[in-house]
Amino acid sequence: MATWEIRGLFGNEYAMEQAIAELKEHTGFEWAVLDRRNLSVRFQKRDREVEEMVKRTFEMYHGFAEHEGPLGEYDRQRKAELEKKLRKEEEKSRRARK
Hints:
By secondary structure, the chain is an alpha+beta fold. It has helices at residues 13-23, 48-60, 73-97; strands at 4-10, 30-33, 38-43, 63-70. The protein is built from 3 helices and 4 strands; from the N terminus they run βαββαβα. The longest helix has 25 residues, at 73-97.
């Protein structure tokens, strides 16, 4: 079974630090800081109760679950969106040159 991931986005660094402090009190998952305001919580086995606790923690500290799915899916989606945007811009610039 694939690793499940919930990505959280927070309004500021302090809010994320508070959420991390809360998450440290619980078990059943691993977490990783992605950048100043993004946090990834990873589960080896899906447990709905723990997932809901993680989402509630995000909400308590003024964040939200930006993505929930298999590990790596979010990155693939973002890459596909970027490629689509670049193709549109390229097509637009080709039309403008004619």
